[in-house]
Specification:
Elements: H1 3-24, H2 32-47, E1 49-58, E2 63-69, E3 76-78, H3 82-90, E4 94-96, H4 108-113, E5 120-126, E6 132-141, H5 152-177, H6 188-204, E7 209-216, H7 219-226, H8 228-250, E8 280-285, E9 288-294, H9 298-313, E10 317-319, E11 322-324, E12 328-334, H10 341-357, E13 363-364
Parallel strand pairs: 12-13
Antiparallel strand pairs: 1-2, 1-6, 2-3, 4-5, 5-6, 7-9, 7-12, 8-9, 10-11
Helix pairs in contact: 1-2, 2-5, 7-8, 8-9
Length: 368
Amino acid sequence: MNSAEQILDNIFTVMERLYDEMRLNRDGRNNHLRVFEIFAELGRTLAGADRASFWRWDRHNHKLLTTAATDSEQIVIDEKSGLVGRAISENRTLVTNDPYNHPDFNAAVDKMTGYVTKSVLVMPVANCRGEIIGAFQVINKLDSETGFDEISDVKRLSIAAFICGMALESDIFFADSQHDKLTGLKNRFGLNDDFSTRYEKLLREGTPLAMIMCDIDFFKRVNDTFGHNAGDAILKHVAKILRDSIDKLDDAYRWGGEQRDVASNLDNRSAFPSRESSSDAYRWGGEEFILILANATIDDAKIVAERIRSTVMNSVCNFDGDALKITMSFGCSEISAALSIEDNVKIADERLYRAKQTGRNKVVADPL
């Protein structure tokens, strides 16, 4: 069999796997991440590369994350970093056959893992409206000493990039439905979905999870005094503080390193890209928010909640010439694998209620 026939046969094999994965759906859910892994394999086969990765642009959190990557767990980087960030920001294909001398190549992962990158090809991926939503990257051309060709390899990879763009657009529609449009945080639907996938899996593995439920004190007074636009500004102000707190938690862990105590590492920063954080912040409804903390006990949750409470109390939300100041109340609990998401929320909500009934601007974590 000649090389062209071999490539075509490999493509048919990959597409057959993709068809079976979508048709059989063995785990009872739409395993879209597995589908993206097969897409990455298709791109790797088409380009004759050693590795391939497919990246999604998370505009909500200003991150780039892999939906699939050969021999690697999910990686998350800043949206403007690396060759992928450059290709997306400039909406152009990048090819380098001398990556270690390229100003945008990040060699940190190679230094840590021992992998040697010789050539890289990155293609931006767009949706049906022409908006860039991700990128396809292949690494190390296998059948050429000179690396990737800017004409032939780009032509081959464009097939996989086009198919992935269509699938990713559907995935982004689903992600958008899980986010609150005002604050950018995930909504109640997002929390319910995360609980049935990420958090239940972590609980089964024995990972401790904690919940913080918080509420803006006297929020109705803000709306009545300054108007609903001011109330929206307050909600976005609080959401940013919560999001920054989650980012800080994620930075308490080094990429690929051992798990560490959350509370004692809140101020630890790392230069390495991180896996997607297992902790997250949600707008539960109205002026109520929920934080889920992974690898965290009730004591960790109390420390995190107290830091957020102090940050909010000492912050100022500037709106239309007014310096608005608010406080928040907090209820903390450990998440039980034996309870549903609704029953776990009830426990944290009861403690939040006690915080508000006993003076507000405080943290309650103790059971009755």
